[in-house]
Hints:
single chain; alpha/beta; 2 domains; three-stranded mixed β-sheet; two-stranded parallel ribbon; 6 helices; about 20% strand; DUF4504
Amino acid sequence: MDYGGTMPQLQENLCSLLHHARQETSILSPLRVMVINDMLYLIHIKGLAEHASPKERSQHQLAFMDLEKSCCKLLTNIEANDTVLEMLSIQDRFSAKYPVDKAVDAPVIRPGITKQMSGLPERTIDGECTDNHNDNRTLLLVDLSAFLGTTQIALPSLNGWLLGYPVTYLFRNGSAEAAIQNLSMHSLHIYRVYVCGSCQSGGKQSEEELMSSLWPEHEA
C-alpha cells in the first residue's frame, strides 16, 4: 500500500512492474493493483476475498476504537455505533464483490475499452499501464473509488481493516481533526512486527518490518 507518490504515475509504475514480474513467474498471477481514491494497494485477489469473508470475520472479530470520541476505550456495544455499522457494511460489500466460493478473479480490462466491473458502473479505463511494445497487454487495475464513493469511513480506518490490524481506529471523513486531537491527548506507543530471516546458513539475520501500529499507553 502506498499514498506518497504522484498519481497516476505511481499507479502506472506499479502496474508496469507487476506486468513484467508476472511474465517471470506464475506465482504472481493472483496479484492486482487496487485503487481507492489516492490510495494504491497491491492485493492478492483470493486473499482479499478470504479476508473479507463472513467466516474469516467471525473467527477473528475486530476490536474498534472510535477516535471521534476517545482513543482509549474499546467499543463494547458496536450495534449502537453508526460508524462501526458503516464499517461492517463496507466489509459486507467487499465480501459480496469477492466471494470465496466462486472462481475469484479481478476483471481483466484492455487499454481504452469500456467494461462493466461486477457491481460497478461502466467507465472507461484510459490506458493506464500501457506498453508500446505490447498493445494487447491486459490491465491489472481494479479501481474501487466509485464502489466506495458514498461511504463516509475515512481511508485510514479502512486501511486498518485491510492490513489486518487487531484494533481498528474509526473515524469519518469529516472528523479527522477530532480524531487527531483525541490521539494527541494521550501518550502513545508504536508497536512493530518484524520478520527475521537469514539468506544462508551462518549468515547474519535480517529484519524486515511487517507492520506497525500506534496504541494508547494504558491500552497496550
